Amino acid sequence: xxxxxxxxxxxxxxxxxxxxxxxxxxxxxxxxxxxxxxxxxxxxxxxxxxxxxxxxxxxxxxxxxxxxxxxxxxxxxxxxxxxxxxxxxxxxxxxxxxxxxxxxxxxxxxxxxxxxxxxxxxxxxxxxxxxxxxxxxxxxxxxxxxxxxxxxxxxxxxxxxxxxxxxxxxxxxxxxxxxxxxxxxxxxxxxxxxxxxxxxxxxxxxxxxxxxxxxxxxxxxxxxxxxxxxxxxxxxxxxxxxxxxxxxxxxxxxxxxxxxxxxxxxxxxxxxxxxxxxxxxxxxxxxxxxxxxxxxxxxxxxxxxxxxxxxxxxxxxxxxxxxxxxxxxxxxxxxxxxxxxxxxxxxxxxxxxxxxxxxxxxxxxxxxxxxxxxxxx
Length: 377
Prior knowledge:
- The chain is of the alpha/beta class.
- The protein contains 15 helices and nine strands.
- Strands 8-7-6-5-4-3-2-1-9 form a nine-stranded parallel β-sheet.
């Protein structure tokens, strides 16, 4: 029988809807919440719509309002490829324009000239991004295809030692992506959509599930004062999640799961116990995308709120899951606009006359548009 994971038993089927139709929705009321508690979506992926930067930011802001959020955190993933080099910039722009409703989990860069070399100091990158206003970091390097693109560097590599030490010293949280669902490595279970999305990892050019999992556990174990958030329950079984929560007091779980939890069957008791045992270590997150906040993300968020509300937590415990724990880990701070402009200037200088490949020209052009917007702030 196929092994069930938290993701599979808590998952939902997306509902059609997109930011393309958002203009028609302006003026709508945000969806009715299960209660009046503050809600922060701690896990929103930056997807560039390609629209003029200000228009894009305004549509994102309206989308998050329609989804019923009081604030949201952009989890950037620049490690995914050259096409993503401007995602940190976009996230900081949103936070600057809407400082009371925006957070940024920045990511490390591997694609600008000189950034992916053995002597590169990832601590210096982290210091620069925190100085700009990063509230935390997202390591998408635990996802097999992103890991491959940035050089298959082990998460336990000495190259990351200074980075982890800096986060630990400053109390800055790290969202650590653990591999992907185990069946993404199984040839007989691969779906066409997985192959098309580059989410099939059975060939030897990708790291194994066990390799990535073991590295993630080692990072948590070797840095006991580092706050680690596992997004999407780590695609793990309930017993694995419970074991990790019991073993590591510095570990938090992003509840991206969806659903009303009524369909969990035998898993419902385990999840309910987890929520009641560790309410101050569960963090609300939908893992939605910026170009569909008012569509599938809004639907998922509504069902997640209702499901969490139905678990029988105390009012304080429920409030902690929805926003309180995240706010305790990430005290709100403004964007340092001068530092952001310097960072944008560094990227601009690096891209001068680059790249040689015509396929990368659209990325360079779009990045320059974002940089130009930042320079005029």
